Amino acid sequence: ARTAAEQIWHDVASSKSIGPPVVYWGALASLLVDEGLGQLPWVAAESQSKMLQLYTPSIVELDEVVQALVLHFSLNVSPVKLQKLALVWQCNSFSTSGDTYGRELYFAPAFCNHSCTPSCRFKREDRSFMLRACCDGISSG
Fold it and tell me: b/e for 32-70, b at 16 or more Cβ within 10 A?
């Protein structure tokens, strides 16, 4: 039997996926205690509710990796909800310090910018998150 990490890497490598393995880790770690794996961290209902308010593209079809994870680990969550959480991590999380394997989710900054030509930059220091507006590409008024 595969560990959770091995299963995620296997599923992402062998399927068309919505993002890298870290996105699925984020989704699994964003489940409530009664929805997920006992050995992974879980979140409070209020935190998960806030996550589900963040931007995600519409789900047109179910992601193969999400379906495989729900089945493999017998998760007590709908595949649609797990996919929505994975999309939250894919579309709203920030890589820190150039680390491609770790991401962090900051609720307020996630609302600030969804653009291929961003008008702000972020910097993380210790436990704080600084967001700075840039002048390039911003019209007066």
Answer: eeebbeeeeebbeeeebeebeebebeeeeeebebbebbb
